[in-house]
Design brief:
Elements: H1 5-30, H2 32-49, E1 59-64, H3 66-70, H4 80-92, E2 97-100, H5 110-122, E3 127-131, H6 140-150, E4 154-157, E5 161-162, E6 169-172, H7 186-193, E7 203-204, E8 220-222, E9 238-243, E10 250-252, H8 256-259, E11 265-267, H9 268-280, H10 289-308, H11 314-337, H12 346-363, H13 365-378, H14 384-392, E12 400-413, H15 416-422, H16 425-445, E13 449-454, E14 457-462, H17 471-490, H18 493-498, E15 503-518, E16 523-528, H19 530-540, H20 542-545, E17 549-552, H21 553-558, E18 563-571, E19 579-585, H22 587-590, H23 593-607, H24 612-622, H25 627-637, E20 644-646
Parallel strand pairs: 1-8, 1-9, 2-3, 2-9, 3-4, 15-17, 18-20
Antiparallel strand pairs: 5-6, 6-7, 10-11, 12-14, 12-15, 13-14, 15-16, 17-19, 18-19
Helix pairs in contact: 1-2, 1-10, 1-12, 4-5, 7-9, 10-12, 13-14, 16-17, 23-24, 24-25
Length: 650
């Protein structure tokens, strides 16, 4: 018997969770950005949230500083007679062990070199010398001399394990697996010389966080002052000698996540001191390990699947994923703060997101099919904006409306009625269909909602049903694009032969009631109100003004990227109050001499200046086809003055 649909879904979901849980840690390990994010989250926790550990005095650092170098005859290599004297004084204090984090990779003064080796040989305290190899940038000659100098003494590799993504030191180096003699890391070798139990493999470095930002994690004394310090300060201690210089042997540590790269870089000897302190006190950085990390990722993946199959709206699902992620990260940080393990957060979060996305895709198939049906059924008849809203919320297929700010756009084709009467129907249909297809396409490209098509006229509006903060700008840009298309279309052979007229466009912005108007059998998503009527009037007055686009002041004020020229305060038939109107200009036309002359003439008209008539005549000399300038000149010739225009026709 085959599995039921429910059982199949359970199997599929389980497989998704397991695959995401296994794959997320691998991706987080090998994707640089994910590895860097995981490192950052771990560093922040270790530095700021690690449980407080008191300062440790088992390890003492004797640092060679700039002040130390100022007392020596030369800076580099370190004066070996000085080192010999320092070792004699430290040996007399009877420490447990001494580690020297200085590479003796080149000769200095023969007498001083011999003296240092003799001092090392005579030490009663176990001493470990740092060594390096070609991986550390040493030449063949340096390696040869170093091996000769340290021959017969205990040594340890001064290697620091740096992360391949960000170069941060986060592990204690145990040994070089390719070394024939299995030479130990410097920290391990010094700890062994001090009689401590040492780890067999590299382990995570547990830096002492928080308080280490304000106070040293261990005592640090300048090398040139060591001779003047009480012997009891070094007795039974493990001493590390190394450089604390601003530009030499400094390495990035987790402290860089808080302090920045410069302040978060520590001298190599300090990093060895952190590692050595950890070994001597048997500290460990608690982690889940690889298996625990996978189990955690699978658990988060399962949580993602659980959220995906809930019957919630998409915003609610996204919110639930965000909340789950926040809770998980907060829990992970709090867990470490109170002594728990340092658990990975990026890989499990990735598993949560991917599993949730796959689960949503798997269970959203039916919903997508329903949306596809609605989209295909309505997309040819109404605006894509409304289609998208209906797809997201089919309940809006009901009567109702709202008052909101909109921008309406009306277009009309001059002489359409006579065109239909004198032209063969087949040609008229082909011509108008191609024209309307272009006009509607431009409207949709600018985010318009198509209200209706009446014969040759296109009515559209903006800022409904979806919010469009720049709806005025969209409408004016749409009008300019429509005008360019219509003029180009008029010049085509078929339109020219048919005598296709120019397209006139009116735009107005303001409040309107927008919604589904109609009855049970039919409804229309449209707008009602004076704003809509005014837009229609502004379209019709183009015929009298000699313009092709007329825009109300409210709409023009919101189209800041478009240049306009004033038309006047238009008082249309049936209205007592005027509408300040403007004509939008293309970038090519806005800066011509004729437009500059028009602005001068209109200013004279507004002021009632006697030279207004001559100024408009000058505009027509520059541009004889300027219908708006001709309109105002005719008004002046008929005795009209001012910029208020009372129109006798609708």
């Amino acid at each position: 018997m085959g599995l039921s649909a429910k059982a199949k879904n359970t199997v599929i979901l389980s497989a998704i969770a397991v695959v995401c849980g296994l794959g997320a840690p691998l991706l987080a390990e090998f994707l640089p950005f994910a590895r860097a994010a995981e490192n950052w989250s771990a560093d922040i926790r270790q530095v700021l949230l690690a449980p407080h550990r008191p300062a440790n005095d088992d390890v003492v650092v004797v640092a060679i500083t700039e002040e130390t170098l100022a007392t020596l005859p030369y800076r580099s290599p370190i004066d070996r007679a000085f080192l010999a004297q320092l070792l004699v004084r430290l040996d007399a204090a009877r420490p447990r062990a001494i580690g020297i984090d200085i590479l003796f990779d080149q000769p200095t003064e023969a007498e001083k070199d011999t003296r240092l080796r003799a001092t090392l040989a005579a030490m009663s305290t176990p001493v470990v010398l740092a060594v390096g190899g070609h991986a550390g940038g040493l030449t063949e000659g340096q390696v040869a001399y170093l091996e000769h100098f340290v021959s017969g003494f205990e040594t340890g590799l001064a290697n620091l394990v740096t992360d391949r993504v960000d170069g941060t030191v986060r592990h204690i180096f145990a040994s070089h697996s390719n070394d024939a003699d299995k030479r130990s890391g410097f920290d391990i070798a010094v700890a062994r010389a001090a009689g401590a139990e040492v780890p067999a493999t590299s382990v995570a470095l547990a830096y002492r966080g928080r308080k280490a930002l304000d106070e040293p994690a261990f005592p640090i004394f300048p090398a040139h002052a060591a001779a003047h310090l009480p012997a009891s300060w070094f007795e039974d201690k493990v001493i590390l000698i190394g450089a604390d210089l601003p530009l030499i042997d400094r390495h990035r540590t987790p402290f860089a996540a808080v302090l920045g790269s410069s302040a978060g870089s520590l001298p190599g000897v300090f990093i060895h001191a952190h590692g050595l302190t950890q070994i001597l006190q048997r500290w460990t950085l608690p982690t889940l390990g690889p298996v625990g990390g996978v189990v955690l990722a699978i658990a988060l993946a399962a949580a993602g699947i659980g959220l995906a199959i809930t019957d919630w709206a998409v915003p609610a699902k996204i919110g639930s994923f965000v909340v789950t992620s926040i809770v998980f990260w907060t829990g992970a940080f709090s867990l470490f703060r109170f002594g728990g393990p340092l658990i990975p957060v990026v890989a499990p979060s990735f598993a949560l997101a991917v599993a949730g996305a796959i689960g949503t895709a798997h269970f959203g198939r039916r919903a997508r099919q329903e949306k596809k049906f609605i989209r295909e059924a309505f997309s040819r008849y109404i605006s894509p904006a409304i289609v998208n809203q209906l797809v997201e919320d089919p309940s809006q297929l009901s009567l109702g409306g709202e008052r909101r700010e909109v921008t309406y756009l009306f277009t009309d084709l001059a002489g359409f009625t006579s065109l239909v009467e004198r032209t063969e129907p087949r040609i008229v249909v082909a011509l108008i269909n191609e024209y309307l297809d272009g006009m509607c396409r431009i409207a949709f490209e600018h985010g318009a909602t198509l209200d209706k098509i009446v014969g040759d006229a296109v009515v559209a509006f903006f800022n409904a049903p979806v919010e469009q903060p720049n709806h005025r700008e969209r409408a004016v840009a749409c009008a300019l694009r429509m005008d360019a298309f219509a003029e180009a279309f008029r010049a085509s052979p078929l339109a020219r032969d048919a005598g296709l007229g120019e397209t006139r466009i009116g735009i107005n912005s303001g409040p309107a009631v927008v919604g589904n108007f109609g009855g049970e059998m039919f409804f229309d998503y449209t707008g009602q109100g004076d704003t809509v009527n005014a837009a229609a009037r502004l379209e019709s007055v183009n015929k009298q003004l000699g313009t092709r686009i007329c825009v109300g002041a409210a709409a023009a004020s919101g189209a800041r990227s478009v240049k306009f020229r004033p038309v006047g305060c238009l008082v249309v038939k049936g209205k007592s109050e005027g509408i300040d109107a403007f004509e939008p200009l293309t970038d090519q036309r806005a800066f011509t001499a004729a437009i500059a002359a028009y602005h001068t003439a209109f200013d004279a008209l507004r002021r009632g200046a006697p030279d207004a008539r001559a100024a408009f005549a000058r505009v027509l000399e520059l541009d004889p086809d300027d219908g708006l300038a001709a309109f105002h000149l005719k008004r002046l010739e008929n005795g009209d003055t001012g910029v208020t225009v009372v129109l006798a026709e609708k």
